[in-house]
Amino acid sequence: MRILRDPQYTRPEDRGASAAIGNFDGVHRGHRHVIDLARRPGAALGVVTFEPHPREFFAPDAPPFRLMNAEARAHRLEKLGVELLAELPFDVRLSSLTAEEFARDVLAGGLGLSHVVVGADFCFGKGRAGTAAMLRDFGARYGFEVTVAELLTAETGAVSSTAIRAALTEGRPRAAADMLGHWHRIEGPVLHGEKRGRELGYPTANMALDGLHVPRLGVYAVLVDVLEGPHRGTYHGVANLGIRPMFERETPNLETFLFDFKGDLYGQHLSVGLVEWLRGEATFDGLDGLITQMDADSARARGILGAL
User: Fold this and answer.
1) CA–CA distance, 218 with 81 (Å, rounded to integer)
2) CB count, 10 Å around CB of 169?
3) Domains 2-154 and 184-306 share a fold
């Protein structure tokens, strides 16, 4: 998959792509429906998205809300067969374009798209003044087709990033996965931590949650993909998402113990899928009590993951 961050540098062979447009936070089932409608014989499958998320640009001090960072989104889109990812820098210049300027200068002139697909609630241009109906008119004017996808619903209601965040906040990762169409994953590099887990017999891979919506704190059964290096592959594990109250950490992070694994993961990139919330964070009278609980958590997680 080719990632394009400036529409002015589109290669001639990239022009004529059929692309879905949106933020695609989480790349959930509704997003996949929009992307599937962009598949056209003879045209490269593209996605047009924005980085940072427009909400981050307009409200930089708001609480973190993203389900995926840019790296995780790109990995998921590549798995769906996307060939061209236009990750447009959302800045003052882009946010100042009118709806018509965006359609004319970015979609038609810059990217040279032949066909675009958007959700029925899609808004674009300065002040979010552009609508899906207006995009149809601009497409007819500037030479690209437009398909408007109806919103996808599930048994629990509309499939949306908001509903997925709510399920994760409540500690229901399986409900989130039903809407996502895949496990909710946290991706990023393994960072050096305080190495307390190693001393307890549970060495963990530590990952930051910067900029991401934080699911319910606690212990989870997880599926882990090591994305690179000599240990590349899929593993079962148990993870603590939180602040480790016994050790008085202020900022939550993700600490994952991979079952039956030996090796060094520092600096490697992991994708950790949350499968089931096991319990909340807790304090213990001493390290022996903590180790006993970790043993029980691991046994329970092995059972859950083995039944998948």
Assistant:
1) 34
2) 13
3) no
pLDDT mean across residues, the chain? 92
Confidence at 194, pLDDT banded by 50, 70, 90: low
Q: How far apart are CA 48 and CA 23, in angstroms?
A: 8
Can you give the pLDDT at residue 159? 80
Mean of pLDDT values over 179-204: 83
pLDDT digits (tens, 9 = 90+) for 119-149: 998 999 999 999 999 999 999 999 999 999 9
Say which CATH topology domain 184-306 has: Elongation Factor Tu (Ef-tu); domain 3 (2.40.30)
Q: Which residue has the tokens 């929009």?
A: 34
**152 DSSP β-pair partners:** none
Under 8 Å between Cβ of 278 and 297: yes
CATH architecture of 2-154: 3-Layer(aba) Sandwich (3.40)
Q: Residue 59 above 80 pLDDT?
A: yes
Beta strands (DSSP E) in the chain are 2-4, 18-21, 45-51, 84-89, 115-119, 123-124, 130-131, 145-149, 153-154, 157-158, 184-189, 205-208, 218-226, 233-242, 253-258, 269-279
Decide if pLDDT at 151 tops 80: no
Which whole-number Å values give the CA distances from 244 to 142, 197, 207, 297, in the listed order? 56, 11, 14, 15
pTM, two decimal places: 0.88
Encoding tokens for residue 149? 């996808």
pLDDT at res. 173 = 98
Show me where the domains of the chain are located: 2-154, 184-306
